[in-house]
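Action item from last week, closing it out:
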Amino acid sequence: MSAVADALAVGSYRLGWGAVRRLPERAAYAAFDQLADVTVARGGKGVQRLRSNYALVRPELTDGELDELVRAGMRSYLRYYCEAFRLPDRSAEQIRAAVRVEGDEPVRAELTAGRPALCFLGHLGNWDVAGAWGARELGPVVTVAERLKPESVYAEFLAFRESLGMTILPLTGGGDVFAELRAHLTSPVVMPLLADRDLTARGIDVDLCGHRARMAAGPAALALATGAALFPVSIHYEPLPGSSWRHRVVITFHPRVEAPTTGTTRAKATALTQSCADVLGAAIREHTEDWHMLQRVFT
């Protein structure tokens, strides 16, 4: 049964890579909107978790307003997949037109000076589009990817992201990922790391939107170990001007966060991570529907 399930998963992703890319753009996005609405109507575990996460960060909403937000959130989440399936066919010019950037001057200054830039990301908007844009417009992009199951699906996503110009390291099942990332930070690279959910036993407890959550320690630990600048980065969608259905990705590079000058390494890492959580928390409250968090994050 496991082999059958794996084969079905691989077949579904390959169907996405192929069939969705051949559909007219508007038809593809409309189909994913309908799929999102059906998914919400079924109310599975992922939808329930999305709703509970949204309820915590937006406690002022009525039940009806929360229902609408969950529907918008699932549409945003499936828009990410629709874009991912179609992204390999986009030219550099099309990717540039699909992105609006704010606050990137300090990041460019670090790279121009020959230094790396660490970016603390949440599961907001479309980080693959952001990575593809960064690889073309900023410089080499190095990041980490969670190892998916089955392995063949992970291989498909790995090949996809590498085709966009990114260097991808596996979070698990490879070598010492921290040492590998640290080695890459000796050159002027952009290193975006999804960190709003801890996938290890070494996470850092923070306050996120007024609730305790555990975030990954990696970005702060790398910043302290290498001296690399650490920038919180938020990503969201906005309607494309002149269109009733198309969206573009907005990438916001927030000001660099600084570690305290005194205290233990752990205390400094906690302070850095909390500073990033404060920035992401504000972005999550403002663009809640673009926070694709269908897993447990609050402790």
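Closing note: Residues 2-290 form one domain.
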